[in-house]
Amino acid sequence: MGGIKAVWQRYSELDTKGKMVWWGDFLIKNAIYIIILALVAYVQWFSIANNFTNQFLSLGSMIDIINRASSSMFLALGVGGIIVLTGTDLSAGRIMGLMAVVSASLLQNPVDIFPAKMFPNLDPPPIIMVMILVMMIGGVIGMFNGFFVSTFKLHPFIVTLSTMIILNGVVLWYVRMNGGGPIAGLTPEYGQFVRGTVDLFGTPVPHFVFFAIAATAIMWFVWNKTTLGKNMYAVGANAEAANVSGVSVKATTIMIFGIAGVLYGFSGFVEAARIGSNGPTTGVMAELDAIAACVIGGVSFTGGVGKIRGIVTGVILLQVISVALQWLGVSSDVRLIITGTIILTAVALDMRKYQAKK
């Protein structure tokens, strides 16, 4: 409340021209949020006007949005740290896709239940072991990206684009070992571990929602309460100044990319069980939603700026947009166009704020 009173007091002291400038800046800074709010209001009116049984702003719709946001949260939390470092990660979706098919192939039902098992002589290993394995592989791939970015001073766009292409080939090769068909027939225990529900105030909430909450809490702690988090912001704001002050830019970059890879690996583990049937298209372009969510949530490509709460807000808002467009009957191709437009608009507004500060 004190912050609101201070803003109101400063606003009251402005002259007419100053107030007009203030409102102009306010509208530009919050344009994305205003557009989303207008979209939500329109969809709600649309659902009422057409006498839909379930309205857009209903409990069921909100739960659907939370479920969608939770499954997307892991990638966004990983990409967010890389954007704070003034980078990006185009390989996020492919790392997730590879870890999804690996998880699925290791946790298929026995041959006597599911004859099309990819490794017929392999008994399903413990679920936790598979989870740790794919997180480790994801972390190694992430550190590989960070190593090339920090050691050879390559732009993250180029490094992660190359990794994305390489992993795309690896995923295709891996799935071809299964005859090119989808990897399905997962063990009930795996599905229960990820998709099982907990009754919360009479509403079934999937386990992966709680996984997303835990991952968010852990990343908040890393960003705000650890030396690595402080170094991340310092490197993102000014790498040369951070290096002079004793921060290891190389180690920080590799660690942030590595943590992102761990999150991508866990995302693949969750996604494999969530969708049940995995193939070469699993995770394709998932990084776009993650990047869009981060930008909408205020994680700046100029570096050194971003909060975990902003990422969470961005993920939820992006899913609100997706669900709203589905309610309006917008086709998937148009939804992709809109998502791309949102990214472009958000980055343009972010750069305008950066230039205004300079």
Order of helices and strands: HHHHHHHHEEHHHHHHH
Main sheet properties: 2 strands, antiparallel
Q: Give the helix tally.
A: 15
Rounded mean pLDDT is: 91
Please state the CA-atom Rg, rounded to the nearest Å: 22 Å
How many DSSP E strands?
Answer: 2
- Tell me roughly what share of residues is in helical segments: over 70%
Terminal-residue CA separation: 29 Å
Adjacency order of strands in the biggest sheet:
1-2
> Into which percentage range does the β-strand content fall?
under 5%
The 3D shape can be described as: globular
Q: Helix- and strand-based class?
A: mainly alpha
Low-confidence stretches: none
Task: Summarize it.
The chain is an all-alpha fold. The protein is 72% helix and 2% strand. The model has no long low-confidence stretch (mean pLDDT 91).
